[in-house]
Amino acid sequence: MKKLLLITFLFSGLCSHAQFGTNVFGKDPIINLENFDKQRVHWGYFLGFNSYSFRFDYIAPPEQDIIEKGTTGFNVGLVGNLRIFEYLDLRFEPGLYYTQRNLTFPNIEGTTADRLREVKSTYIHFPLLLKFSSKRTGNIKPYLLGGFSRTLNLSSNEQAQDDNYSNRFRMKRWTNNYEIGFGIDLYFEYFKFSPSIRGVFGLEDELIRDNRPDSEYTGNVGSMKTRAVLINFTFH
Fold first, then answer.
1. What's 58-102 look like in SS3?
2. How far apart are CA 22 and CA 55, in angstroms?
3. What span, in angstroms and rounded, lies between the C-alpha atoms of 156 and 172?
4. 21: pLDDT confidence band, cut at 50, 70 and 90?
5. What percent of the chain has pLDDT over 70?
6. 197 CA to centre of own chain
7. Half-sphere CA count of 101, side-chain side, radius 13 A
């Protein structure tokens, strides 16, 4: 998470610093793309990073919780922006998200392979968001984002008959989430650059239980919901 934040601030700082010499973000800036946001509809694309995790709730207090170790994933997608009025936009940001979470079950007897599940996920993410912008100051405009999303997990194993006792971790194929975040629009001579950070919060249990009701892997899990931090660099 610290690495993701550091990348965001460094990248934004470098882009801003590169333009200071041409008086783009100075005291009396040259106003770039002055009428860009007056378009009814405009398009863009994004690249970024993600950090996915799970929130586990248990039926009874376990001797030791499931231990999770996340990794840094990669995002890519498109942006469609509909201007509702001056400070409010509706955004659709379909994207492809790659991530992996490693789960260790410390109460399982056996080998390391028996206790470890590598949950690799490829998501197609469909967020519909409202963008609340502040008044533009020179070539800078901060904004807030919020809305809902639906996610398709291409690696869910939902239809598989095998379970954790055959080394297969299963999740639901479709999930719903809500999202909140913030970002900043930076206006350059030929394009608008928008770094943003957003939290994703799953609304429903995603875990498919093992075939045995008393499974040591899933029997004590009341719910398992996605939590994620998304950092996107958007170009319009």
1. ECCCCCCCCEEEECEEEEEEEEEEEEEECCEEEEECCEEEEEEEE
2. 47
3. 6
4. very low
5. 88
6. 8
7. 21
In order of their start, the domains of the chain are: 2-235 (2.40.160.20)
Q: What is the DSSP string of 11-54?
A: HHHHHHHHHHTTTSSSSSPPPPSTTGGG-SEEEEEEEEEEEEEE
Is the model's pTM score more than 0.90? no
User: Cα separations (Å) of 86 from 38, 65, 79, 82?
Assistant: 8, 48, 19, 11
* DSSP-assigned beta bridge partners for residue 226: 54
Mind giving me the DSSP string for 132-154?
EE---BTTEEEEEEEEEEEEEET
Question: pLDDT of 173-197, one tens digit each?
Answer: 999 999 999 999 999 989 999 999 9
- Of 34, 125, 129, give the one whose Cα is nearest residue 88: 129
Indicate if the pLDDT at residue 11 is higher than 60.
Answer: no
Task: Decide if pLDDT at 51 tops 80.
Answer: yes
Left (φ > 0), alpha (ψ -120 to 50) or beta: where does 113 sit?
A: alpha
Could you read off the pLDDT of 66-114 as tens digits, one per residue? 999 989 999 999 999 999 999 999 999 999 999 999 999 998 888 888 9
- Cα separation, 178 vs 171, in Å, equals 19
Beta bridge partners of 100: 120
CA 210/CA 164 separation, integer angstroms: 7
For the chain, the straight-line distance linking the first and the last C-alpha, in angstroms and rounded, comes to 26
